[in-house]
Amino acid sequence: MSTARTGRSIWFLCPVYLDVESFQALRRDLLHTLLDSRELHGWSVHFVAVDDTGGVDPDIPRLRGLPDVMVVEPPFNLGHQRAIVYGLRMVADQIRNDDIVVTLDADGEDRPADLPRLLAPLLAASASATSIALARRTWRHESMRFKIMYAAFRVIFRLLTGVAIRTGNYAAYRGWTAKRLLRHPHFDLCYSSTFISLNVAIDYVPCPRGHRYAGQSRMNYSRLILHGMRMLMPFTDRLALRALVLFSAAFTGGALMALVVVATRVLTTIAVPGWATSAVLLILTLSFVALGNFVILFALFAQSSSISLANLEDAGNRSTRRPSPPSD
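The structure assignment produced for this chain is given below.
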């Protein structure tokens, strides 16, 4: 497999957080998979490792000596989602429009064996520069507790957005997409769910979740909950619309109940219980309070979490921390 900067290239970008050993195993397996690919024969291969520790991982220098690996160091920990976006934007100028970009986790849970099927929509004769393929999870090797929580999250996500979510970071697309679409500000919030939130055509490729190469996952339940909240952020418009519909229904119901109470008191001799009047006022008050709290809290959380990656890119260009150049 060629690693020289000639012809078309395939780029693999992975966030690496104290997981160099897994990244090396992933690189080895990906290279073996590509050797068996007739469609990618003669393509240049480049790996981009985004050091999400912000330059404090003592094992990262081991990757700089590899001829096909480029290391990108954000100024601080961004989390795996925004680390992917930061890394892609930092190397976008080196990617050609007809190159292929593959993003995946470095731990091995995104299986190299599924790569040929993931790339098939991009290599098909009908494929275009805007083709995007996402791995759709069909099976996860997790504890029963995690599976129950994940199933509950999917139900909540579907109710709030109207979209079924079963994708992660395993994605493939052309350099055209990496150089243009990934400039969309929603990617500053969340990488994996933004593709689904935008009005773009996507091919979903069934892929089971694999096993980790080494070590243990550092994703605890609190981080998973925060990750789930960030996945909702690109759907702010849909959330606002559904919240408005729910508020309108609650307010309309409360108003109708209030009219019924008033009409009963004025037009009839039927005694209206005091609790009925209190209940109507409570429903109207809660509908206003719920809407206000939802809009304010969600907006504040989105603003506090959407650190501008553009500013980080500018800072990176002015600092000495630059991508290590690929070796020819």
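Interim note for the steering committee: The domain at 9-218 is CATH 3.90.550 (Spore Coat Polysaccharide Biosynthesis Protein SpsA; Chain A). The CA atoms of residues 137 and 207 lie 5 Å apart.
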